[in-house]
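[INFO] parsing input record for MBL fold hydrolase
[DEBUG] input buffer:
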Amino acid sequence: MTVSGFTFNAFSENTYVLHDATGQCVIIDPGCYERAEQEALRSFIEEQGLQVVLLLNTHCHIDHVFGNQFVVDTYKVPFLIHEADLATLRSVPAYAPSYGFARYNPAEPTGFLTPGEPVRFGQTELEVRFAPGHAPGHVVFYHAPTSTVIGGDVLFQSSIGRTDLPGGDHATLLASIKSQLLTLPDDTVVYPGHGPATTIGQERRTNPFLK
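[DEBUG] output buffer:
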């Protein structure tokens, strides 16, 4: 499995395309809002000859969901989130204009993720791990064969997700990190929702929030 990343929108959000040798791929957290950002994502998929089969959200804060409807309209694929984040997703249209995003076009999920039930595409299987605290229905996607986790806004390089947004809870987030991420091997690469990639081992040793 290969991870390709893009940084989109005013929040510098990381969008990921996961693809394997079959050419099938999933899009995770499409943050593309401007037309140029949408075209960058579309062009990459076309140039790589990829077939989009699924849209996933780690969680549903505004910066991670801008491109959901674009992906659904363009590729006609299922769209999955954790059910506990449905209210988070449905709240975005009410506040998007106040952030300057009046053209946000909301999408409704077609189904829900269940922790412990894998997500499959091509020859790839992703483990769904429930990691609330930053958002009520936050999940992360772990791929053991490549020691990779798509972590959303749970764990960052030398930081952790904020917990001052609706549904956030600091103690819950720390418990999620300890049970769902720090239980992974040290060489596991964490692809976060913002900023550079890191590893579980580096964050275990140096992250000041985990001391």
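[INFO] The first strand starts at residue 2 and ends at 8.
[INFO] shutting down worker
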